[in-house]
Amino acid sequence: MKKLLxxxxxxxxxxxxxxxxxxxxxxxxxxxxxxxxxERPNILFIMSDDNTAQAWGVYGGILEDYVHxxxxxxxxxxxxxxxxxxxxxxxxxxxxxxxxxxxxxHINGVKILDAGLSPDYNNIAKExxxxxxxxxxxGKWHLKQEPAGFDYYAVLPGQGEYHNPVIKTEDNWKxxxxxxxQYEGFSTDIIADKTINWIExxxxxxxxxxxxxxxxxxxxxxxxxxxxxxxKDVEIPAPDSFYDSSASTTGRSFxxxxxxxxxxxxxxxxxxxxxxxxxxxxxxxxxxxxGLTNEEARYxxxxxxxxxxxxxxxxxxxxxxxxxxxxxxxxxAENTVxxxxxxxxYFLGEHGWFDKRLIFExxxxxxxxxxxxxxxxxxxxxxxxxxxVDFSALFADYAGINYPADMQGRSFRENLKGxxxxxxxxxxxxxxxxxxxxxxxxxxxxxxxxxxxxFYGNGFKDAAQNQFWDxxxxxxxxxxxxxxxxxxxxxxxxxxxxxxxxxxxxxxGDTDVDTPEVLEIIKEHWND
Length: 528
Description:
Layout: E1 2-7, E2 10-15, H1 25-34, E3 42-48, H2 70-78, E4 80-82, E5 85-86, H3 92-101, H4 105-108, H5 124-130, E6 134-140, E7 152-156, E8 166-169, E9 181-182, H6 187-200, E10 208-213, H7 247-250, H8 259-271, H9 294-330, E11 336-342, E12 347-348, E13 354-355, H10 361-364, E14 368-371, E15 380-382, E16 386-387, H11 391-399, H12 413-417, E17 427-432, E18 442-447, E19 450-454, E20 469-473, H13 491-508, H14 516-525
Parallel strand pairs: 3-10, 3-11, 4-15, 5-16, 6-7, 6-10
Antiparallel strand pairs: 1-2, 4-14, 7-8, 8-9, 11-14, 12-13, 17-18, 18-19, 19-20
Helix pairs in contact: 6-9, 8-9
């Protein structure tokens, strides 16, 4: 009797009549085990850039009735939505490094936007490979050096282009922004199609982990031509805090990235085509605010930005639908964990800002939905505090592999079932390292009700303000419109939170031993 085994592209013919179990017991046992299809779940991890919760519709808010995202809604109906999923460092490159390595920024070394991840550094894809999974990453990589741990990769150089993007693969790789091949079409469509193609042509005897990373909805918020007229002649409401243009309004400890800066970018890109070679290649130019007051100009800027952002979201949603339909058609849906998230949140006019980076809610809240028909509850919402450092632990849990001791995440698989462990975290830890005058370096914690942050960057020479603490009661002030740090009724709570911050810093290993200037600022201003 003969049995045919296919391992990758190698066909091994084993004739059991000449191999007795007595003579070769180990080999025969191995052959029998390898002949079975691995029934562990597949993982399809879909991530957009900056596609903040306000633009999903399923989280409510002023855009709920305007967002075109039926497939995100479908995922929410068929899976579980996380209401308190937090990024630990709200900037693209560090967030992606944390998701892959299962480590906070100060451990994996990717603290700022310009950092990169060495191919030699361990990550969850490598662990999944060792555990028998096929792995791929397609789309935005943003970690500069060559992806490692993936059987296949096809990634954008840097931010990449929305239209006719260059994509880099193993056969044309060069570090940083060189190398690659140009593809015709819109990047979101291309990335989804390439993901489907890889899944279709995989080794079907193994489970897979496919990472599908869209460039959208990152600035310049571009969109496929099919959505060019979406929201035409529609006026989109602005947030209540849209005209907040001063830290003195709310008592906060920093200035933030004003919507007025985006207005200037639109104007600069209009008159200087050279600026359109990177992230300032905005759709729909020229842009003009001639004859408008400052407030009118800000409002016009908002209308352009928010419509473009939601058009970009609509393009993402199309492709989520394409991926879900493919899983249904091929019978993979039942045994595939599907996750859709964004690498961080984003300000869409709240507090008069755009961009991210800050510990405020719109920035640190990662929208996250997960569907796994065999196990994850449909139409459910989970309020537990989940961090992006936990994603790797969840992947390992589903894969049934050991989670490396030096990774810092914790699986939330039981949380998703509705069985939150009694010792689950009460606070998420946050640190923003990429200091600037308007968005100073800071660290802090965010619980279900209270948030406290220390803006150590205000102790540097270029500081815009001589103020160090922000405290918010998210139950009484969910939009963070009043820094209540000096409110006497919170005195004891704030002292408890300061102690909690120090415990968190020690627990995650963020000691600042390599930044003595920060330790000096902490020492001088901790009790301000």
